[in-house]
Design a protein that fits this description.
about 550 residues; alpha/beta; five-stranded parallel β-sheet; 13 strands; binds glucose-6-phosphate
């Protein structure tokens, strides 16, 4: 493909940026009282307002040209139709097949994958119903009340985020736990309050070789065996989700209790598969299917809507505008719903592992910025912590504000106070506070002329800070499915424009490999010299001072 920066739309955007960079959003709003009308979109129960961005109609039209000139429509069809767009791993990228609610086949290597997808969903229904209804019994004949998902990265973050997001829909009396960290404190603290007779483990690992997960699974199995003194307990208390079925069987999990994974599902896109089993058990399979339905509807929107009215494309190109033309290095996700507290962490992986790349699909080093640093936190928590920097700091940090219109816990005025804060923040980021306002504020507070002169500069807020606002009617399983798919397709679109492979993760694999080698050294107390001097020195110091 032609280098991104040589595309006519890129060149036009460079020029456009120079012409518009001094424009203040505040003035744009004053000049056009219909700005909200021009720059907002609705999709089902989701509203996206993107009017608080440094854009005008020409900006959007040039950004859409960039998406078109990058071949977005073709790439989208390639992804949905099972072409091996993950070229470095020679794999298709088909998380969309997992939530394909149409009767259309999806082919990989000439084979329709839908029958297998459907049969795994059936199996998830069967297992989740049996566990929820109390039919599934532990080794001593008691029903299960605690589910522990053992997995890490893509086999953990999605199930945690969704289970937390859908907490109000969870079965009362059933608890779901997630153990991801190989730090023994995680598994030990989790097991401390659990009853082995009533606990079910789901070992979620596509490869079934990830050291963190396998070690935690072994510790869980030892705990179960120590307490049950019954070898057959493993069959009743362990389920696996794995592409590597042999390894799961070797661990001692019954073949029928192993759920399939496919190489065309990336870890960070896998919550829609049986990696989402803990979610299905917790909220029930009907709700899990609503989650899939919401994602499917967003898939259809992304695939078919014109780019100009396409929510994921709009979020993607706005991200490119700041990342590549304003040199913004990060992007903050700010959900205003307690249940979405893991949403930023989930998309930190989703985005940074996908688009944190610097080699193009053609094997060249990029000469432009790719994926930004994604970070975030519950917005209301952030207001009392890091928003100071967003308002008055020296960095440009575009933000996404997300809130449901209705609370799932409508108590008193809590929710409208939350909403008041929500609306106040994006507005203030945009307007800022000018000299006149700062002076007036100080005067209203009773300061003398002399003090006002001294103090007003520190009260100035630059304003002109861009944000997107997403309003959901309510945080239902379906709306959540659409919201997640919205961000997934945003990431895909940006990856296409940056001409990178969003679906491999060589650095994650390198981490696993190097750790395995150092683990071997530590275990055998090898006083190594094969690493750099710092690492050698640290390992020696550790070995000298540890009791292991
Ligand atoms: C996700 C990454 C990574 C992966 C974990 C767990 O896209 O590849 O986060 O999901 O390393 O891998 P396993 O599921 O194979 O244990």
């Amino acid at each position: 493909m032609e280098n991104l920066t040589d595309l006519p739309a890129w060149q036009a955007l460079l020029k456009h940026k120079k012409q518009t960079e001094n424009v203040q959003m505040r003035d744009l709003f004053e000049q056009d009282e219909n700005r909200f009308e021009s720059f907002h979109l609705r999709f089902n129960d989701i509203l996206l307002d993107y009017s608080k961005n440094r854009i005008n109609k020409e900006t959007m039209s040039l950004l859409m040209d960039l998406a078109k000139q990058s071949g977005l429509k073709d790439w989208t069809e390639k992804m949905f139709s099972g072409e091996k767009i993950n070229h470095t791993e020679n794999r298709a990228v088909l998380h969309t097949a997992l939530r394909n609610r149409s009767n259309e086949p999806v082919y990989v290597d000439g084979q329709d994958v839908m029958p297998e997808v459907k049969s795994e969903l059936e199996k998830m229904r069967e297992y989740s119903e049996s566990i929820r209804s109390g039919q599934w019994l532990g080794y001593s004949g008691k029903p299960i009340i605690d589910i522990v998902n053992i997995g890490v990265g893509g086999s953990d973050l999605g199930p945690v985020m969704v289970s937390e997001a859908l907490y109000p829909y969870g079965k009362v009396g059933l608890r779901v736990h997630f153990v991801s960290n190989v730090d023994p404190s995680h598994i030990c603290n989790t097991l401390r309050d659990l009853d082995p007779e009533r606990t079910l483990f789901i070992v979620s690992s596509k490869s079934f070789t990830t050291q963190d997960t396998i070690m935690n699974a072994h510790t869980a199995r030892d705990w179960l065996l120590e307490n049950s003194r019954n070898e057959t307990a493993v069959a009743k208390h362990f389920i696996a989700v794995a592409a590597n079925v042999e390894a799961a069987m070797a661990f001692g999990i019954k073949e029928e209790n192993i759920f399939k994974m496919w190489d065309w599902v990336g870890g960070r896109y896998s919550l829609w598969s049986s990696i989402g089993l803990s979610i299905a058990i917790y909220v029930g399979m009907d709700r899990f299917e609503s989650l899939l339905q919401g994602a499917y509807e967003m898939d259809e929107h992304f695939r078919n809507a014109p780019l100009e009215e396409n929510l994921p494309v709009i979020l993607a190109v706005l991200g490119i505008w700041y990342n590549n033309f304003y040199d913004a290095e990060s992007h903050v996700l700010l959900p205003y719903d307690q249940h979405l507290h893991r949403f930023p962490a989930y998309f930190q992986q989703g985005d940074m592992e996908s688009n944190g790349k610097s080699i193009t699909r053609d094997g060249e080093k990029v000469d432009y910025a790719t994926g930004p640093i994604i970070w975030g936190e519950l917005g209301i928590t952030g207001q009392h912590a890091f928003y100071q920097n967003l308002h008055q700091g020296t960095h440009l940090v575009p933000a996404d504000f997300i809130v449901p219109i209705e609370s799932l816990n409508p108590v008193g005025n809590h929710h409208i106070v939350l909403l008041a804060n929500f609306f106040a923040q994006s507005r203030t980021l945009m307007t800022g506070k000018n000299e006149e306002e700062a002076r007036q504020e100080l005067a209203d507070e009773g300061y003398s002329e002399e003090d006002i002169e001294r103090l007003y500069p520190s009260r100035l807020m630059q304003g002109n800070k861009p944000s997107n606002t997403i309003l959901l009617k309510a945080l239902t399983p379906k709306a959540l499915g659409s919201l997640i798919a919205l961000y997934e397709h945003k990431i895909f679109t940006q990856g296409v424009i940056w001409n990178i492979n969003s679906y491999d993760q060589p650095a994650v694999e390198l981490g696993k490999k190097v750790a395995a080698s150092i683990y071997d050294d530590l275990k055998h107390h090898k006083l190594v010299d094969d690493y750099d001097d710092s690492t050698n020195g640290l390992i020696k110091y550790f070995l000298k001072n540890s009791n292991d």
